[in-house]
Amino acid sequence: MTVLLVHGDREYLRAPGEELQTDLGVLTVPDDVEPGQRLETHLGDEFVVREPRGPDLFDHFERTGAPMMPRDIGLTIGFTGAAAEDRVLDAGTGTGVLAAYLGRIGTDVVTYERDPEFAEVARENMRLAGVDDAVEVRTGDVTADLDDLTGFDILTLDTEDAPTVVRQAPDILVSGGFVVVYSPFVEGSRAAVEAAEEASLTDVTTHETIQRRMTFDDRGSRPDTRGVGHTGYLTVARWQ
């Protein structure tokens, strides 16, 4: 089990038996390490042991591009009701954050990544998240295998050719199954909506995802003026 070693605002992922070397000293993670333990470096500085959860993995996964934000993942799970034993077909694995979150709630995920190097990074991230038995990362283009992909409860897409896959959703999904398409641009969402309507999907909606952090000080309270609250658009649809 990989654990998170925390000292103040510093965080490091390490497996049992691995060594951590920082300016605070050196320590070796015990083989029987448990969350909640406090480990001391040879200089006497303490690190608290935590079990990594979804947000921690988002922060520490090796990245191959811009991953979906936790809020987008939360909306995806909320809109679809993704639950244990659901079968999920995902395309556009990237870093694998969405696939890892889905695997951690007990779904069985098949995810496609075109770039072989990105796919290998995603496999390593699945091992880091402890979901490599629940998430199968396939190298290739999902459109090449559509004839063999059936019986899924949920279809999640973060690819430029998402509309092509959406048109095949009736053959991919079980009755009542959901499609979620993430797009950074509204044009991609419009194309996904048109494809969903062509495929006779129902309950087709698109949502812009915006989240603003609040700041509180002596002058008053307001949304933080730093950063960008918009990440993208989620198009959701359902097969009959």
Describe this structure as you would to a colleague.
The structure is a single chain. This protein is α/β, with parallel strands linked by helices. The protein folds into two domains: 3-51, Vcp-like ATPase, Chain A, domain 2 (Roll), CATH 3.10.330.20; 56-238, Rossmann fold (3-Layer(aba) Sandwich), CATH 3.40.50. It contains seven helices and 15 strands. The chain has helices at residues 54-60, 70-80, 97-104, 116-129, 162-166, 169-172, 186-198, and strands at residues 3-7, 10-14, 19-22, 25-28, 38-40, 46-50, 87-91, 108-113, 135-139, 152-157, 173-183, 202-210, 214-217, 220-223, 230-238. The strands form four sheets. A seven-stranded mixed β-sheet has the order 9-8-7-10-11-15-12, with helices on both faces. The longest helix is centred in the middle third of the chain and has 14 residues, at 116-129.
What is the count of structural domains? 2
Q: Give the strand order of the largest sheet, numbering strands 1, 2, ... along the chain.
A: 9-8-7-10-11-15-12
- CATH architecture identity of the largest domain: 3-Layer(aba) Sandwich
Distance from N terminus to C terminus (CA atoms, Å) equals: 41 Å
Which CATH class of the largest domain applies here?
Answer: Alpha Beta
Task: Work out the number of β strands.
Answer: 15
Structural class: alpha/beta
Major sheet attributes: 7 strands, mixed
CATH fold description of the largest domain: Rossmann fold
Q: Name the overall outline.
A: globular
